[in-house]
Hints:
mainly alpha; Alpha-Beta Plaits; 2 domains; 3 strands
Amino acid sequence: MRENPLKLQLTWLRRALKNAWHSLLRNKILSVATILIIALMLFVFNLVLAMSYASDSVIANVGSKLDISVEMQRGVENYSVQTFIKDLKMHPNVKEVVYISKTDALARFGSKYPNVISFLEHHSLENPLPDTVRVVSTDVSDNNLVIEFLENPRFANVVNQEKLIKDVEQKDRNAKILSITLSIKRLSLWLIVIFALVGLMIIFNSININIHSHEKEINVMKLVGANYNFIRGGFLFEGVGFAVTALVISLIFSRLILAYLARNLVAVITNETLMAGLNSVLLHFEDNFWTTFGWQLLATVIAGLLSSYLAIELYLRKHHSF
């Protein structure tokens, strides 16, 4: 009577898991060393990830304060100014537009420096401050796009474009922030690639050592009729066991470190920008813990399977004929 294919698959799975478990127990020192090294690597990866989130938050916090100041031409009618503001609000990259009249600007300035107001009134001098428009873009990366929009010749009668063009400081600071953001993302990407390659090499070498230490058992299994899928299975699950165990250890350790930071650093840090960066890290790993865990679990399982498959495939092709 022919056996049920599902039952055969379950039997193969059970035996492969049993072989992987026995292999891990037989080489305790190697297994523990491999798991701890991978766990340390994943912990460092989580630190890099946390730094990336913190940097993004700090840059976003700084960028939200870098608005664009636009000086109006003197003598412009209020209707023209309101039409300009309406057109500006319709721009897809503009988040907020605030009009500050020269009277309001002088009142704010006078609240800080009342002697200046007294000097102007004493000498019957006119208000030297211009009408201005403060523009906040949707993102700091959009600031230069908004500035280019403001340099359009159709706004020449409303906007003091000569001063806008000469104010290269606004463009320079936007470019610097974008450059820093891009550099951090590139560094994070390279570190992820390096960690992935190192992880593959560690698991590959550990499985390779285990394969050669079990060479006699593999030969016996081959002689009694075991197929290559059964031989592969134990080592594949062994590689996954290395990766998943290391991932769990690293995430536990990461959460302990973050809990320590939450208890001790939050009460010490007074800088608003640094606090925003720390909060972004804490909130991200708290609110998105299972998402982060899921993606890292998927990545580690793939890494464990791939490195184990390469190791056992290389051995079988070298020592056995297919």
